[in-house]
Every structure is written in C-alpha cells, then in structure tokens.
Amino acid sequence: xxxxxxxxxxxxxxxxxxxxxxxxxxxxxxxxxxxxxxxxxxxxxxxxxxxxxxxxxxxxxxxxxxxxxxxxxxxxxxxxxxxxxxxxxxxxxxxxxxxxxxxxxxxxxxxxxxxxxxxxxxxxxxxxxxxxxxxxxxxxxxxxxxxxxxxxxxxxxxxxxxxxxxxxxxxxxxxxxxxxxxxxxxxxxxxxxxxxxxxxxxxxxxxxxxxxxxxxxxxxxxxxxxxxxxxxxxxxxxxxxxxxxxxxxxxxxxxxxxxxxxxxxxxxxxxxxxxxxxxxxxxxxxxxxxxxxxxxxxxxxxxxxxxxxxxxxxxxxxxxxxxxxxxxxxxxxxxxxxxxxxxxxxxxxxxxxxx
Length: 355
Description:
This protein is of the alpha+beta class. 40% of the residues lie in helices and 14% in strands. The protein has helices at 16-29, 34-50, 61-70, 99-117, 133-142, 195-204, 224-227, 238-253, 287-302, 318-330, 336-349, and strands at 11-14, 81-85, 89-93, 119-127, 146-151, 172-176, 184-188, 272-279, 332-335. The strands form 2 sheets. The protein has a 7-stranded mixed beta sheet, with helices on both faces. Strands 1-9 form a two-stranded antiparallel sheet. Strand 3 (89-93), helix 4 (99-117) and strand 4 form a beta-alpha-beta unit. Helix 4 packs parallel to helix 5.
C-alpha cells in the first residue's frame, strides 16, 4: 500500500525490549499498576510492530494517556466491577480505567467462559480507547479460541448518503487459531482510513486516496487538509456504514455505554463501550478436525493464482506478522517527533528517558 513508504531519516529504530521497558516505566510513572503497565505495553508494542507509525497506535498513544490521566478522563488502578457475571456472558464496568486493561480483562473472561459454554460474550461500559482490536482478538486465538473484539468510537463517519458524521470507525478484530502457524488476524476500522493516516499524509504533503474522506460539504477530495473536518468514508460504501451501526448497537447501546454522537465527546468522560466474543471450535467438532478442515480451506485460498505474480495471495494478518518479524530483526521505527515529545513528558513526570 502507498502509506508503507516512509522517510528513514525521520525515524529512530529501537529494539522491542527497549521500547517495552520504557513504556512500562512510563505508565508506572503515570500511576498505573504493574499489571496495567504490562498490558498496555504489550498492546502498544504489538501495534508498533504491526502498523505504520502514521496510524498513531504505538507509543504515540502515550500522549493521549498522559493528558487523560492528568485531567481525570482515565483513572489508574480503577475499581472495575462485574455488573453481570453469568456462565456465558458478563458485563464489566471499567470505571474510567485504561481501555486496554478493561478489554483485556473482558476477553480473558470471555475465554474462560467459552471453554465451558462453547461461546461467550463480555461487554464493557465506562471505558476508554482500547488500542488495536486485533490485539484483543489474538488473546483468544492464543488460547485456542476464535476471538472477536469490537468497540465504538468518536463520530467520524456519516450515514451513507449524508455528510454529517454520526458513527465511529468502530474497529473490529477477529482472530482464528491455527495449530502450527500464526493465527489468522483481521484488524480493521470500518472506514477506509482514519484521521491519523490523513494527518501523516498532510505532514508529508502527499495526496491521499480519493476514497478515504469527503470535505465537510460532501465533496470528493485527495487533499487531507480539505477533508480533515469532513466525514470518513466507510469500507464497502453503504455496507461499512451498516457494519458501523451494528457495532454501535453491540458495543454502545447494549452495554450501557455512550454511543453515536455522544461517545468520545467529553475528554473527561469518554464512556466507550466494547464487546468481546470468544468461540471454542471444539464445541462443534474435535479440535483436530477443525484444524484439518481449516488448513484445507487455507490451502485452497493460498493456492489461488495471483493476478500479479509479484503479489501472492496472503491471509489476513500475514503482512503484520511478517512486519513483526522484520522489526524484531531490524528495529521498530519511532518518529523523531514522537521521541522528542516523550522526552519532554518523561522529564515532566520524573521517569528516566531511555530512548
């Protein structure tokens, strides 16, 4: 994809161990417990290894966490409580705690229940940004289960046929375990792109694809600046709009969190909702049969002749895991801008700056 290209002179490369240690120390400096800091660091490191820095899901998220811990929008070591806790479903009140932590606890709960019931769902209310959806779905796949994680988000998408934003990017993460290889992981927003990548194109003074966003008046444009205050365009046109609405019902309406135009609007009370679903394939057939049948399907998919021989058919998540391997060998890129800002923030909260 076009946004894979980046100027190597504008980034520093770090080992996973260096970035992880700094992130844990930094989060501890913000008041996070060791458990919270470890979960958040693991999530941010996964995002940093998988995605382009312009998407802002790696260490860049520390800027938001810092601001919101200081203004009370996020509460470190929040008193999260189970409002509902049945054999196959549950509801967690995140009490304005870290979204990564709330979602992790919810998915862990769903996994435990699904191992007994075959399928389980756990909703979350009063939460915050939960990071990348694929991270939480992958938690289930690592336990041998199919995982689906979704969340609502700030209104940035217009209902199909309008230019007025009402719905969020409302990301999905779906992961399917494989017995002898990386899980299949689909991690996607329900818009063609997000404002983070648009800002990256803006900084790079590059035109963005014409199907990413519209101007506030509803006009097609390749100028990210002209579309920054307009609606993001959904994946699959009206189909992506429908999926976003569906997601807000599950994650927002049904959990008791905010939704639509209200969620993410008050910086001191985002009240985000999540929904975690875990499915045990062994509930319907022996695990070995599922594995065999899955691999046969994947053999058929991977065996499809590519249109361009230089671009073979790949499975969802395959690019990300390859990138993870490359960055484990070559280093994880972090922009100079991010490093400089983190240096200032670390000094401000009294944490040793080790990057």
